[in-house]
Specification:
Elements: H1 11-16, H2 19-29, E1 32-38, H3 47-76, H4 89-120, E2 124-129, H5 138-154, H6 161-179, E3 217-222, E4 228-232, E5 235-239, E6 246-248, E7 259-266, H7 283-291, E8 297-301, H8 304-307, E9 324-328, E10 340-342, E11 347-349, E12 356-358, E13 364-367, E14 379-381, E15 387-389
Antiparallel strand pairs: 1-2, 3-6, 3-7, 4-5, 7-8, 8-9, 10-11, 11-12, 12-13, 14-15
Helix pairs in contact: 2-5, 3-4, 3-6, 4-6
Membrane topology: Multi-pass membrane protein
Keywords: 2Fe-2S, Cell membrane, Disulfide bond, Electron transport, Iron, Iron-sulfur, Membrane, Metal-binding, Oxidoreductase, Respiratory chain, Transmembrane, Transmembrane helix, Transport
InterPro entries: QcrA_N, Rieske_2Fe-2S, Rieske_2Fe-2S_sf, Rieske_Fe-S_prot
Length: about 400
């Protein structure tokens, strides 16, 4: 605090001071010396001032419009998956880029508008202040308020209705641009929809839950098929008709000590082997199975010598088929894919945080942060020799949550 300034003002004296007098007193009490101050537009109705105001308003308008466009895209754009060659594929692929572009324009144009306003309207000033300690007196609080009011009035923002309204709208839309995408991450775990390859929307269901509805589910591997390109006299196009992304797995498809990632495939969506139909179009259903967040399963074939040392989990003694075991690929730590199998040590490894699970002891965690075994899928072989699910998982998949049973 400055010790050379009179601080013994009565409330009446302070009340009688003008805004500028209180602001000047405030700078003196804070030990501030205004070395230089210059208004940006000292002359009224300066054409340069109107041009500057239009420039700021233009940037704010762009921010408002792009913010509205962001919300419109987020709410109404066709975001559901469309395979290559399907109608709407282009719109689907543009969904995320449009959100990124519009959010960038919203934030960037708002930032430019604020910078332009500060640069072109707030008075140019150089002030020097001495440091001080201790609490503030009543006179300091009064004068600080006056200084803030003085800063507001000298910025001229209060009388610029258009810019003020646009700034408020841009600020609100900026907040919505930041907050709105979080709405997609908020999920009611009890809000169920019709059961499909993604489950029914609840945390304890997956594509494998279709087994409980009487659906025969094959264990199928992804062969990476993409849409075929066709040319004809009427034009060119992509098609998925007759193509299969998922094909059924037989025991002989895996070598001893091998591992295969498999997904649930309903009998009605099979299009391979003796059930191949060149007219069928099941590609989209296959992609839904692959994209199901809790669907991936590790199908492991143990060597015979290793299988003799297996310790079965109580109540799950018949979940395997011979030397074949199927475990959820979703790590019970934080949901990363346990995509590595080390046949020499019979360890299943999660590359994210190095959790390790013992394949010879019901995928029990033996190292790392995971504290729960990988859930095991009951499996068997049907009359045609293909692997099928003998039941659904009996515990939640992925990271533990409040409804888990183990």
């Amino acid at each position: 605090m400055s010790n050379d300034v009179n601080k013994n003002y009565t409330d009446k004296e302070l009340a009688s001071m003008s805004q500028s007098e209180l602001a000047q007193l405030g700078t003196e009490l804070d030990g501030v010396t205004v070395a230089f101050r210059k208004e940006r537009f000292p002359l009224e109705n300066d054409p340069a001032e109107r041009r500057a105001a239009r420039g700021v308003a233009t940037w704010l308008t762009i921010s408002v419009l792009s913010g509205i466009a962001f919300l419109a895209v987020y709410l109404f754009w066709p975001w559901r998956y469309k395979a290559l060659g399907e109608d709407g594929h282009l719109w689907h692929t543009l969904f995320t880029p449009m959100l990124g572009l519009l959010s960038m324009v919203t934030v960037l144009s708002l930032g430019i508008a604020v910078l332009q306003y500060v640069k072109k309207f707030v008075p140019e000033e150089i002030s020097v202040q001495r440091r001080h300690d201790g609490p503030s007196d009543e006179i300091d609080r009064r004068t600080v308020t006056a200084l803030l009011n003085d800063a507001w009035s000298t910025s001229t923002l209060g009388r610029r209705t258009t810019i003020k309204g646009l700034l408020g709208a841009a600020g609100v839309l900026f907040g919505l641009v930041v907050v709105a995408p979080l709405g997609g991450a908020v999920k009611n775990p009890w809000r169920a929809h019709e059961l499909d390859y993604h489950g029914d929307g609840t945390l304890w269901t997956s594509g494998w839950t279709l087994h409980e509805k009487g659906v025969k589910l094959y264990l199928a591997r992804d062969i990476g098929t993409t849409a075929d390109y066709h040319e004809s006299p009427t034009g060119s196009h992509y098609t998925t008709q007759g193509l299969s992304r998922l094909v059924r797995v037989r025991p002989e498809d895996l070598a001893a000590g091998g591992m295969e990632t498999v997904f649930p495939l309903a009998e009605e969506h099979v299009n391979d082997g003796d059930k191949f139909n060149p007219e069928a179009d099941v590609y989209e259903e296959h992609m839904h199975s692959i994209h199901g967040p809790r669907n991936p399963v590790m199908l492991i074939r143990l060597r015979s010598s290793d299988a003799e040392r297996v310790i079965e989990r109580q109540g799950q003694e018949d979940f395997h088929y011979g030397d074949y075991y199927a475990y959820s690929k979703i790590c019970t730590h934080i949901g990363c894919p346990t995509s590595l199998y080390e046949a020499q040590t019979q360890r299943i490894l999660c590359p994210c945080h190095q959790s390790q699970f013992d394949a010879l002891q019901y995928a029990k965690p033996v190292f790392g942060p995971a504290a729960r075994a990988l859930p095991q899928l009951p499996l068997t072989v049907d009359e045609e020799g293909y692997f099928v699910a003998a039941g659904n998982f009996i515990e939640p998949l992925g990271p533990a949550f409040w409804e888990r049973k183990s």
